[in-house]
Design brief:
- By secondary structure, the protein is an alpha/beta fold.
- The chain has nine helices and eleven strands.
- It has a six-stranded mixed beta sheet with strand order 1-5-6-7-9-8, covered by helices on one side. A five-stranded mixed beta sheet has the order 4-3-2-10-11.
- This is Metallophosphoesterase.
- It comes from Maritimibacter harenae.
- InterPro entries: Metallo-depent_PP-like.
Length: about 280
């Protein structure tokens, strides 16, 4: 396990992840960060810079050039070894797995060797001190990079990951995670689990836009990222990525919910009214 120590960070910190190849979202986040005057050493990503959208190479290149800190997501690990699949953790035969085939093939074709080399060098975990608290940044989980932990997941599942994390990096007060595409906060055994969500895809709430987290002295704040998706939507359609995630940028709804726990899925009548 490769661990990066980012040291002590003073002032607001931006925590984000899941650009997912959506350059419009990444440019919007950059504008928010620059307007707030937050320096690059206080911007930390949870990984998955390429993904459902078509501009994975541009997103990864932008993060690299901006000098923002990032850990590896499953997408980075899979790109680095040119894997046959994204390593997202989707169940075999699921709709999510089937829908991933087109965008993963596009990412494999279009992401450069320079980006793959950069991805291979990214850490698995980053740690930093903010005020009196020590945080660790992971992707999905420590026991499995693509583990899905949801707002409704059981406490023992979070506790298992915290135990594995602390065995590797020592005691922490909080965990910053990504992967599941849903920003949320939980408290487990006195540690705060903060999922920073994704900027490149909406959280399946019917509202276009993404999510990120601002950490400051008052705590962690889940914020919405608004942007015009038209350029990234056009890039997806030009690349033939029209399996449903293109519509998600407009509707705010995922084309498949089979990865979600049952209690987080929309009611059947709502799905029928909106379409797949």
């Amino acid at each position: 396990m490769k661990i990066a120590d980012l040291g002590r960070l003073e002032g607001p910190v931006i925590l984000w992840g899941g650009a997912l190849g959506n350059l419009s979202a990444l440019q919007a986040l950059r504008a928010v960060i620059e307007e707030a005057g937050i320096p690059r050493d206080r911007v930390i990503a949870t990984g998955d810079h390429a993904g459902y959208c078509a501009e994975g190479e541009a997103c990864a290149d932008a993060v690299r050039r901006l000098g923002w800190a990032s850990i590896a997501g499953n997408v980075e690990r899979s790109l680095a070894r040119d894997a046959a699949e994204c390593g997202c953790g989707f169940d075999a035969g699921s709709t999510c797995a089937a829908l991933s085939e087109a965008w993963w093939a596009h990412a494999r074709r279009t992401v450069s060797q320079a980006t793959r080399d950069w991805a291979a060098g990214l850490p698995d975990v980053a740690v930093f001190q903010h005020g009196p608290r020590r945080y660790a940044v992971i992707h999905g989980g420590v026991t499995a990079i693509s583990r899905f932990l949801w707002p409704v997941s059981r406490q023992p599942e979070f506790a298992e990951e915290i135990g594995a994390l602390e065995a590797a990096v020592g005691p922490v007060d909080g965990v910053i995670a990504g992967h599941c595409g849903q920003a949320f906060q939980r408290v487990v055994a006195g540690r705060r689990w903060i999922n920073a969500g994704a900027i490149g895809m909406p959280p399946n709430n019917g509202v276009p836009g993404g999510q990120y987290v601002r950490l400051d002295d008052a705590g962690a704040h889940i914020l919405r990222l608004s942007y015009d998706p038209a350029p990234s939507l056009a890039a997806m359609r030009a690349a033939g990525l029209t399996q449903g995630y293109d519509r998600t940028l407009e509707t705010g709804l995922w084309p498949s919910e089979d990865i979600l726990p049952p209690q987080m899925r929309r009611q059947p009548e709502a799905r029928d009214a909106i379409g797949p």
